[in-house]
Each structure stands twice: as C-alpha cells, then as structure tokens.
Amino acid sequence: MNKIFKQFKKEAKLDPKRKADIRAHLAHMVESSPLVQGKNARVVFGRTPAFSFFKPMPVFAGVAVLVLAGGGVSFAAEQSLPGDPLYSVKTGVNERVLAALAVSPKAKASLEADLALRRIDEASKLADGGDLNSQTETELEANFKDHSEKMNSQVAALQAEGDLDGAAEVSSHFEASLRGHDSLLGQIEVDEDHMAQIEPLREQVSSTAGAVAGLRAAIELKVAAELGGQKGAMAQGRIDAAEHAVGTLKSALDLGKGRFNIGDAAKLQTQLDAANDFLNKARAKLQINAEGDAFSLAGEGLRAAEEAGIVVNSGRRKRGRGGESGGGSQHAGTTVNSTGTATTTMTHATSTGNGSSTGVEGDEGGNGGSGGSPTSTLSGGASGSGKTTTSTSGSVDIKVDLGY
Amino acid sequence: MKQPIEKKFLAAYDAHADAIFRHCMIRVYSKDKAEDLVQETFVRVWRYLEKGEEVENIRAFLYKVANNLIIDQSRKKKEERLEEMIEAQRIKEPSHPGHKAIEAQTLLGQVFESMEGLPEEQKQLLTMRFVDDLDPKEIAEVMGITANNVSVKINRAVAALKARFEPGTTR
Question: Do A47 and B108 touch (CB under 8 A)?
C-alpha cells in the first residue's frame, strides 16, 4: 500500500501549463497587493530585481521598458487574459505606463473608463471560451469597480475645475460603452454554470451604467443651468461628434452588410435610426436656441451610435439559441434597466419598432450560429480625434478609444 | 538578508503546489477541482499574509487551508474517475514495464476506491501521512488535535483501509 502511495506521489503532478498559469495569477495578485505596493515599506525595500520589473516605476523607466522591448512583449501582453503569463505585464507595466502618461483629469478619467472596459472585455472573452472561473470573475469585477470609481473621482475633478463639457463627454462615452458591453455580455452563449459566473459582473456593469447615466444627466443639467454663451458651441460640438459617430456606424453597417444576420442588422439599423432621430431633434433645438436641450439630445444620439458601435466592433454575433429568439428581448431587457430616460426612449424605439424583426432574428439565430464575423471596425470615439489602441479578440480586432 | 514576503510566498508555491494538488486530488477525486483548490488555497494564504498575519510552518498551513476548503465544498461530485485520472497522468512502473505496471495501476485504483468509502477524516489522515509525508506533529497542527491523537487515529485509519482493501483482514 505504502509503495503505491509513493508511486502516486512521484507521478501525480499539476499539469505544467496549469501550474504556470496559477503561478502567473498569484504573481499578479501579489504584485498588486497593498502589502507589496508600498503599504509595508520594509517589504518593498527588500524586493528582488526580478520583481521590481512589475512594480510601480517612474514613467521614464516604464517608457524605456516599452521601447527596449521593441513593443513586442508589451503588444503581446495587450492581448493577454487573466491566467496568461503576460497578463502581469499588461496590468503591471502597460497600464501603469498609460496611467503615468495620462496627465490631465480628462485623460485620467478617460483612461480609468477604458481600463474598466478592458476588464469587462477580458471577462467576456474568458466566458466566451468557457474559461472564466469564479475567482477570476471576482477579481475582474473588483478591478472593474475600482477603475469605475476612479473614473467617477476624475469626472468630479473635471467638474471642480469647471470643465463640464469634458466631464459630460467622458461620462457619456463611458455610459454608452457600458451599455454596449452589457449587451455583449448578454449575448455570450455558455452553459448555466458559466452563465452564473458572468452574471455578477453583468449586474455590476448594468448598475454602473445606471449610476454613470445619473452622473451624466446631472452634469447636463448643470450645463443647462450654469453655462451661458458657451452652450451653443458645446451643443454644436456634441452634434458634430454625434454626426461623426453616426456616420462611422453607418459605414460599418454598410461594410458589414451580408455578414450580420438579419436580426442583428435590423437591430443595429434601428439603433442607427434612433441616433439619427436624436441628432435631428438636437439640430432643431439648436436652431431655436435651446442649447441645453440640443446638447442633451445630441448626447443621446451619440450614445445610441456608440452603443451600437460597441456591438458592431466586437464582431460577436448572436449565436443560435434554438427557438428562444431571446436576442431581441435580451437586448431590450439589458437597456431597459438603464436609468437614463432618453436612453430608455431609444430602447423603446428599439424594442417596439423592432417587433417583427425579433421573430426573424430568432429564426436567423437558429441557423446562423456559425456565421462569419464582420471584419470592419468602428471607432467608439466620440470626436474621432482621439488616439486609438488596438487589441485583438480572437480573429476580430477591437478598437478602444483612449483619446476622446 | 531577509527574503521579501512575496518571494517567499511564490517560492512556497513552487515547492508545495504539486503536493497540495495531490492532496486535493485524492480528497475530491477530480483533477479540475483539485487544480482550482490549489489556486484557491494559495490565494487564501496570501490574503491571510496580506493582513499582516504570520505563518510559522507554511507547509502545514497550506494543508490546513486546503483542508478547510475541501471540507467547505458542499458538492463532492466525482467529475473525473480516478482511473481516468491515472490514465491521464500515465502512472506506470518506470523500471518494470509490462504486466507489473498494469498491476500497479490497478492496485492504485483499488486503494483509492477503498479510500473513497472511508470517512472523510480517515481519508484526510491517510493522505496527509502517506502521500503528503506530514509527520504526526504537522498533521496535529493541521487538524487542531494532539500528535498522540493523530497517531491513534492513523492506526485506526490504516486498519480500516486494510479491511476494505484486503477483505479477509480484521480491523
């Protein structure tokens, strides 16, 4: 008996890949721990050089790492997911460099929003492959929450320094992106166990979207109440941004024609129509000098286009769900729980105007499960002037607007 | 020079991950669950250290945490039968291939089949003593009982195992 135990002891080992994955996960956890981050100075002081690579470093050192690495490691790391060996580089080096480079409150707020969205994207990809475990989900959710809260703080800082336009822009874009990602999370087709794992994050995303909508609405009220002569220019700026986003969405839809199943295409078209509708109303309000309303309506149009853009951009399709035809109602459910009133209006336009196509979508979904992915990309950027970074999701490129 | 805590922790992972995995594998009869338990064990230990708590014997502490996690698990569904696991691990007698290897594999399966029916505490004791190589003092630390008590319980567990393994043997 003892001999058999010994033999088992000798032979049974963790799968080397899994062992390395767990180690990378632990290393990342350790690196981001307050214990190591500086709370305990004695520990940090005694750190070995090997580990200092992943620790906070001056911006120039960070840039030097990126330059010396020729971008190869950093770029590869950008595409890594929790559990991958390079994931520590992504969050420990790349994202810290980005944080160091973001100087103004607006850039900081935008970056925090982007980092929060990255966590959703990562969870989404892991869940898609059935690789999301509860531990990772919890960590990603916590990290998402952390970045969302930081985004809130930065938006508050923006307001404090009087940049209401910037505060509205960042929060509006974040809100739209969250709603887009919420829809995507709802479209992931996994078994019940995995669905249960993604659900807490989805709820978090949904409630954050609601909270951000509230924040954005409050900023818009402030704009309407407090700003004088600037309002006209701000409203015009928003209209321009919305026109750009609508135009980009339209191009992406035209390019992707034939690649979307009928249900998806109909829904995206409805969102495009809704965005156009808001845009026209905004223009009309501006003509009668109701700048506050124009600003707000243009924002609705912008968000509608951006939200649809997230879905188009992801390349993820609604896969066959048998006779559920749940895609349409699922999407409606996702967006209905928003607290932004005008967004709710848009959702109504989506769900009521799309009644017949929901049925079609169900049929499509049933046999369109393996449909090809669109290769067109759409920048989620509001103004189109921001710099973008690109990461890869499977075979589909996703553009993340960092610049606004 | 004092080693940084994070380095010590990761060194403990390198040193003990396989052993904790084996321990968990025997206890939960599932490779996947055992892997998850390894990760969770080390995460919990780090969280504990993070609070500023001190751990004298990291090895015993790891088993203690793993053990608590295993006990906490409400479901004990056998996702992967041991035989399949052995197959996957390609456990065989390296120096005596052929029928002896098959025999050893079969024996191993039987031992674990027998263990499977034992009370949880006896399984735990046998695993810690014969697979994890913990001495009675360390086992006592993990289980929160005296070393003397551990020795007595191990003797009983071995007798119980023999009784199942060799039906003719009395307890």
Answer: no
Query: Is A396 strand, coil or helix?
Result: strand
pLDDT at A278 over 60: yes
Q: What is the DSSP secondary-structure string of A184-211?
A: HHHH----HHHHHHHHHHHHHHHHHHHH
Q: Which of residues 25-64 of B touch A (CB under 8 A)?
A: 25, 35-36, 38-40, 42-43, 46, 49-50
Distance in angstroms (rounded) separating the CA atoms of residues A293 and A291:
5
Whether B10 sits inside 8 A of A2 (CB atoms) is no
CATH code of B97-165, in short, is: 1.10.10.10
The angle formed by the CA atoms of residues A360, A362 and A363, to the nearest 5 degrees, is: 65
Residue A195 sits in the same domain as residue A247: yes
Taking an 8 Å cut-off on Cβ atoms, the answer to whether B18 and A14 are in contact is yes
Assigned domain for A5 exists: no
Q: Is residue A222 in a domain?
A: yes
CA distance A128 to chain B (A): 19
User: Do residue A208 and residue A143 come from a single domain?
Assistant: yes
Tell me the nearest-neighbour CA distance from A197 into chain B, angstroms: 15
Full residue range of the structural domain in which residue A69 is found: 14-101
Judgement on whether residues A96 and A145 belong to the same structural domain of the protein: no
Is A46 in contact with B3 (Cβ distance < 8 A)? yes
Residues A120 and A28 in one domain: no
| pLDDT single digits (tens) A338-397 | 333 233 223 333 332 333 333 323 333 333 333 333 333 333 333 333 333 333 333 333
For position B87, what pLDDT does the model report? 58
One domain for residues A72 and A204: no
Rounded average pLDDT over B36-41: 93
Q: For A99-135, how does the pLDDT look when each residue is reduced to its tens digit (9 = 90+)?
A: 888 878 888 899 999 999 999 988 888 888 778 888 8
Given a cut of 80, whether residue A228 has pLDDT beyond it is: no
A117 and A60 housed in the same domain: no
| CATH classification code of B1-74 | 1.10.1740.10
Structural domain boundaries of chain B? Answer: 1-74, 97-165
Shortest CA distance from A43: residue in chain B: B4
Q: Is residue A365 domain-shared with residue A297, that is, in the same domain?
A: yes
Domain-terminating residue out of A77, A101, A125 = A101
Do residues A157 and A245 both lie within one domain? yes
A4, B111 contact by CB (below 8 A) = yes
Contacts of A18 in chain B (CB under 8 A): 35
Angle at A234 between CA A230 and CA A240, to 5 degrees: 150
Provide the pLDDT for residue A104.
82
Enumerate the residues of chain A whose CB falls inside 8 A of the CB of residue B28: none
pTM to 2 decimal places: 0.46
**How many domains does the structure of chain A reveal?**
2
- For residue A122, is it within any domain? yes
